[in-house]
Design a protein that fits this description.
The chain is α/β, with parallel strands linked by helices. 41% of the residues lie in helices and 15% in strands.
Length: 311
């Protein structure tokens, strides 16, 4: 059963979609990526693949999706997003009578993985987990250089080396000229390591029976008022934070994902302490593995959820 509603959280009416199948099933709360790019209207596809497994709760963060028009003037802050998430989990627990699993994607993995340290959920699934954002561009560019070498493109290797020299190998975009940033973006697209999630959402959201033309406008403008969140992301490094968790943890990435480099996720998963830690790498997929290889992706998720629920 699909249910839509607005729920006031910390003074802002948030848009929710719930897919309920069986009250005895576990519940997954989805914390979308972005920042400012809600995935709620694409939730019908996720729910369709897992109706035998769980019920779902999707919500649009402030500044994103259909919560966008209810958000107060001014840029959205991390503290607001985190506080909202705390309230959302409380509401889900009160309504369902159970601790939900949290599945977070991309930007959403930052507040979500910190929140689950409080042991208020049944388990955590980080999809395209953000880990070390300070060095993310260096990892991407090292991959570009590797791929350029494999294809014999000495020109691209030289370009990457010049960009590295210009930033003293930190690959901080702020240290690059506009033309150099453009070259970097072109190479990321050429070697298929740029994020393609926006493109995938543009395909799927219009397929929702709830879609309205205003949703396209929101998708274009949401990231603008989430600018502070994008800036906040740049300094994230989970290796410098607590790596101990009291709940089962799962990470799932595509082996071509350099939007949130799967190599860093794999390294992080190998270092944390938790009752159960799983790292699933979906072959021949990038940052939207759930769409490229849905059967394999959801099979991995199902195995984890079944192992840690009362089903």
């Amino acid at each position: 059963m699909e249910k839509t509603e607005y729920i006031e959280i910390n003074g802002v009416k948030h848009f929710f979609i719930t897919y309920e199948y069986d009250e005895d099933m576990p519940v997954i709360l989805y914390v979308h990526g972005g920042p400012g790019m809600a995935e709620t209207l694409a939730g019908w596809e996720m729910a369709g693949y897992t109706e035998h497994l769980c019920s779902w709760v999707f919500y649009d963060q402030r500044g994103a999706g259909r919560t966008y028009y209810n958000s107060p003037d001014g840029l959205v802050t991390y503290e607001e997003i985190y506080s909202d998430l705390e309230k959302v989990v409380e509401i889900v627990k009160e309504r369902t009578g159970k601790k939900p699993f949290i599945m977070a994607h991309n930007w959403g993995t930052i507040p979500a993985i910190r929140y689950v340290r409080e042991d208020m959920v049944s388990g955590y699934i980080g999809y395209g987990q953000a880990v070390d954002m300070r060095n993310i561009t260096a990892v991407r560019c090292a991959r570009i250089k590797e791929l350029a070498g494999q294809t014999g493109s000495r020109h691209d290797v030289r370009v990457i080396d010049k960009l590295a020299a210009a930033t003293d190998n930190t690959f901080e975009r702020d240290l690059l000229k506009k033309s150099q940033v453009t070259r970097l973006n072109v190479l990321m697209s050429k070697y298929n390591i740029a994020s393609g999630m926006d493109k995938e959402l543009m395909k799927r959201i219009p397929s929702s029976r709830l879609y309205d033309m205003k949703d396209l406008n929101i998708m274009m403008n949401g990231p603008k008022i989430s600018f502070k969140l994008s800036e906040y992301m740049k300094n994230i490094n989970l290796f410098e934070e607590s790596m101990e968790y009291d709940i089962p943890m799962m990470f799932i990435s595509g082996n071509w994902d350099y939007s949130m480099p799967y190599t860093k996720v794999q390294e992080y998963a190998g270092k944390i302490k938790a009752p159960d830690v799983r790292m699933s790498i979906i072959k021949d997929t990038g940052c939207y593995a759930m769409y490229d290889s849905p059967d394999e992706f959801w099979s991995e998720v199902a195995e984890f959820v079944k192992a840690h629920s009362d089903m």
